């Protein structure tokens, strides 16, 4: 069920992203090639799918939200390009292919990330068929979640973590570095559909719980996952001397912890009147994934 759902969304999203990131016949096309390579390389599109599912759940019934979904995926992809750089996690593989800086060089990869982040807001701002006040509110939400008080702040905490950091600091990092974009995906879907602030807040809670569970599973897979299945080397956290909740508490405990956060995410969906089956299935899929 979930695989089919993701593939249906992937086909539409990738078709649009292919057009957005197509070469322009200009001297700067190399950076567009790097953007196209980095975005259209087999990602599952989890964040756009969450956005579009919440959009439908709150009454959106057409494809007007796809621009925002593409913008969100572009921002997520930029973060991966920059995470892989030698000055960050220094990873050579991403989704089974050479990382952007390995394929195009470090300078082009840096500009690729910058371009994806910048162009994402242009794509979002060109949304048609949705009232402009909703679009403005959604753009502000996206900017905040990607910025210093969101994903970038989480990355900064991750880089600064020491072995003596409190467990709560680790969870704060998870909420920001991974959870911020998942949280905003859910919220923006509701905002674009015209949902009230209470439902937007509940959707955010769903995304936050899902984000923490997602990062815990990521950390487990970095310890125990299969590199071929993951499409990137395992043991990156150990190589970079990163402190994770899995290192502190062990794999089995953390699996139960991820399930706890997923169950709490399920509870949030009870506040919505529409059909939440796809969102529940997606949360279960993320909990049980091996990639």
Describe the model.
This protein is an all-alpha fold and 291 residues long. It has one domain: Farnesyl Diphosphate Synthase (Orthogonal Bundle), CATH 1.10.600. Helix content is 71%, strand content 1%. It has 16 helices and two strands. A two-stranded antiparallel sheet has the order 1-2. A hairpin with a 2-residue loop joins strand 1 (93-94) and strand 2. The longest helix is centred in the last third of the chain and has 28 residues, at 197-224. The model has no long low-confidence stretch (mean pLDDT 92).
Offer a concise description of the structure.
With 291 residues, the protein is an all-alpha fold.
What descriptors fit this protein?
291 residues; single chain; Farnesyl Diphosphate Synthase; mainly alpha
